[in-house]
Amino acid sequence: MAKGYWIAHVTVTDPSRYPEYQAANAAAFKKYGARFIVRGGESQVVEGSFKQRHVVIEFDSYEQALACYRSPEYAAALKIRKDIADGDLVIVKGPE
Length: 96
Hints:
It is built from 3 helices and 4 strands, in the order E-H-E-E-H-H-E. It is an alpha+beta fold and 96 residues long. Strands 2-3-1-4 form a 4-stranded antiparallel β-sheet. The longest helix is centred in the first third of the chain and has 14 residues, at 18-31.
C-alpha cells in the first residue's frame, strides 16, 4: 500500500499563536499516525516562490492522509491555522 504525504509551505503571520495550532493538531496527527519527515529547518529556495516554513508529514497510506485532513480533530486546528498563517498544502500518494 502506498504511503500518503502532506507537503506544506507556510508563512506564519502570527507567530505568537503558532504553539496554539501545534497543540490543536496533535490529536489528529496522533490518531492518524502522522510522522514528521521535515518540520521547518534551514532551507534555500532554488526555484519558484518562497514561503517561510516547509513541512512534510508521512502517513501509512494516502487514505489516512486524506482522512486526517478531513477529520473533526484537524478541523479545529485548521481554523486556527487559517487565522495565523498563509500556506499551501498538497496531499500526495507515494510510490507503490
